[in-house]
Amino acid sequence: MYKSNNNIAYDCKYHVIWCPKYRKPVLKGDVEKMLKEILSFKAETLGAEIIEMETDLDHVNLLVSCDHRYGIHKVVKGLKGFSSRVLRKNFPHLKSTMPTLWTNSYFCATVGSVSLEVVKQYIENQQVRTKKK
């Protein structure tokens, strides 16, 4: 579904993955539960929407939709920073066993409604009708 503002219609979705420092398996039980609540809350305050979310013991997987003007980097930075502060405050063992909760890095890939081949074919065929005349 497309979103729009006064001048632009857009559909920006991203697959995002990040890990705890040293890939420690800390995302379980109450930590996992609170993390999911925190990420949903923070995404909303950032103007983003988490379409899908799941964690494993050592990584977070998200499908995120956000305004193209704001950018996925700011969304990920906001989600990681906020969740780190809240989780480390509520779960002292995360503070004592790890220097930071998250690694500095993350994976991000765009996710489209149509395939790359469909878009390429659409662009290639833009002037086909006028060239035939």
Structural overview:
The chain is of the alpha+beta class and 133 residues long. The protein contains 5 helices and 6 strands; from the N terminus they run βββαββααβαα. A 4-stranded antiparallel β-sheet has the order 4-5-3-6, with helices on one face. It has a two-stranded antiparallel ribbon with strand order 1-2. α1 packs across α2. The protein is elongated.
Classify the secondary structure makeup into a structural class. alpha+beta
**Number of helices, counting only DSSP H or I runs of 4 residues or more:** 5
- Spans of at least 5 consecutive residues whose pLDDT stays below 50 are none
Rg result: 19 Å
From the spread of the alpha carbons, the general shape counts as elongated
Strand content: 15-25%
User: Which range best describes the helical content: under 10%, 10-25%, 25-40%, 40-55%, 55-70% or over 70%?
Assistant: 40-55%
Main pleated-sheet profile: 4 strands, antiparallel
Strand runs, count: 6
What string gives the helices and strands in order?
EEEHEEHHEHH
Widest beta sheet: strand line-up: 4-5-3-6
Query: What is the straight-line distance between the termini?
Result: 36 Å
